[in-house]
Amino acid sequence: xxxxxxVLGAGSLGTLWATRLAxxxxxxxxxVRDTARLLxxxxxxxxxxxxxxxxxxxxxxxxxxxRGEPIQRLLVACKAYDAEKAVAQLAPxxxxxxxxxxxxxxxxxxxxxxxxxxxxxCISASSTEGAxxxxxxxxxxxxxxxxxxxxxxxxxAPIWLEDLAVAGIPHEWSPDILTRLWRKLALNCAINPLTxxxxxxxxGLQDHQCEVATLCAELAELLERCGxxxxxxxxQQEVERVIHATAANYSSMYQDVSNHRRTEISYLLGHxxxxxxxxxxxxxxxxxxxxxxxxxxxxxxxxxx
Length: 305
Known about the structure:
12 helices; alpha/beta; 305 residues
């Protein structure tokens, strides 16, 4: 029997992966926060994927973190600010040679998780797939994209990538995954905060081209200083392309704020500003953007960390 996929986090990407893996016949187990969540999930009858307007429910088994059986393969799909604490609860269940796939936005949470799991192989993932929750346990597949996976300390690709191919999850093993993660962080920093502050869809940033260009210049400078010249290459053109291609979409940070949820500011803009300060790099517009966003979140009664 093939190794089960334990999925931690029933947000948009976690549900998107779990349903496609289950649809392809792979064993999947959803890990939920507590007994109350487990009962709510069981009452719903499973995870629902809406694709091309058609809704299909998959009866993926669920369990709480304190179940006893060992975990060999864990997909961590919760928010960056929850990842470290959530994985700590599961650490006793991880097999000695467990593999942990980290599907978080931004940077910082991956290192924090890996530091507490020295016995496991931690693999970072960066995805451009679009999805949003349409209620509890229900996700809409909004835009086909790509997922890059990699392990900076161990470049050999794992055999379970075949599971993703069978499940129809477009992916690529990337020996330079850090470059991918930095590039995605820069894209998010140039787009997400501005969509919140200007209260617009991604396409609305076409009316703020000077502000976008200024941020891209500073972000490219940061990437160069961090030893990531490939991530800095043609950054502004890529940001403009993404804004145009996803013009009708709301950014993940915009969605978080509109749903009065905590954002991942600390792992996006916060991480970029922190690294810039460590390198004694003066990036005034990036720092100003962080302060504007912090004040905006505080005015809405939302956490600013």
